[in-house]
Amino acid sequence: MRLRVPLLGLVFTGLLLSVLAFRPEPVQEGTLIFLVRHAERADDGLMTGEEDPHLSEAGYGRAEELATLLLDVGLTTIHSSDYIRTRETAAPTADAAGLDVRIYNVRALEDFARELQATPGRHLVVGHSNSTPELVAALGGDPHGEIQAMEYDRLYLLSIGPDGVDTVLLRFGEPFADGS
Questions:
Q1: Among residues 54, 104, 144, 145, which is most buried (max CB within 10 A)?
Q2: pLDDT digits (tens, 9 = 90+) for 22-33
């Protein structure tokens, strides 16, 4: 018995196979990165020389406020440097989101930036007054200048997509008063 396939059926099958062979890659989810400096340190302004202090009462309050602010953004990953104050800043958000805090190396920001750029999702990164703007720049964003010694209210939002990086600088919690 001989199977007969109409010519039009063969043409259609050929076209379908060629379209499937050259289909574009599926669009990946974009990457949103929230970056903050750790909240207020217990020894701010005291110059105690302690290198790894806990948060102050105000710092714990700001960390809780950050968790509330980011509760509904759908975080997929939370990153912190390996210092008490950064881990304590990240902890309420991690608890609220049901996520573990991943430690990153503040001395390898270029490598960490490449890792973040290659990982679609929504990230929170908790760093320091010097490393946070540096990481924003390494990601292709605008750091909006240096973070001042007593400035804890910056919240960067970087949106990374096929057209580049968009930076939004937000403020949260008790506002920074620079004294000038």
A1: 104
A2: 433 433 468 999
